[in-house]
Amino acid sequence: MRQFVVVGHDAPTTPDPISFDDLPGAGRLDLLCRCVGASVFLSHGIRDDVRVHLVHDDTFTITFDSASLRHLHPDERNVAARIRDALAARDEAIGHMPADVSPGVECRRMGVEATLDRLDREGTLVELHEDGDPLVEAEPPADPIFVLSDHNDFTEAEADLLAERSDRRVRVGPELLHADHTITVAHNWLDTDGYTTY
Known about the structure:
Order of helices and strands: EHEEEEHEEHEEHEH
Shape: globular
Helix content: 25-40%
Number of helices: 5
Number of strands: 10
Structural class: alpha/beta
Strand order of the largest sheet: 6-7-5-4-1-9-8-10
Distance between the termini: 20 Å
């Protein structure tokens, strides 16, 4: 299982501000939609055993599970519609019990720390950060849980939390990449067993 936790610092927590004509204006929802696409889609297909968790403003976490997703298309508007539906169902997320939005999509009333707590025993926590060790020098873990930020840096509290919880801190290359591109590089690293098998 591969998992990605994307921290959306400005992401909306209600469906109201989401306009399909201005996804960047809704807390850079366009970037979060692209992160979902990079996580779960292949050309003309969908990846097996991938989950992406979008943490919205440290309040709600929306999870897309590739194993059970149905009728999700790779365009940003389609993904944004699922996110809007998830936020519309947020009142049904009670405690840490999720609101079921549609097949493969859930919304939980959880911020960053609670999401990491929930995922803690499911794999190796890997922080993706520009100051990390080079990815090419690392050994791919069996069940990675990659944590990365949106267009903003991690907050001080998030950085402290990740310093305490992460098993590894790596960078994908010498240049700063968009979050969705970083996910693509991480997938390629795993697909090639650390760039050794093609």
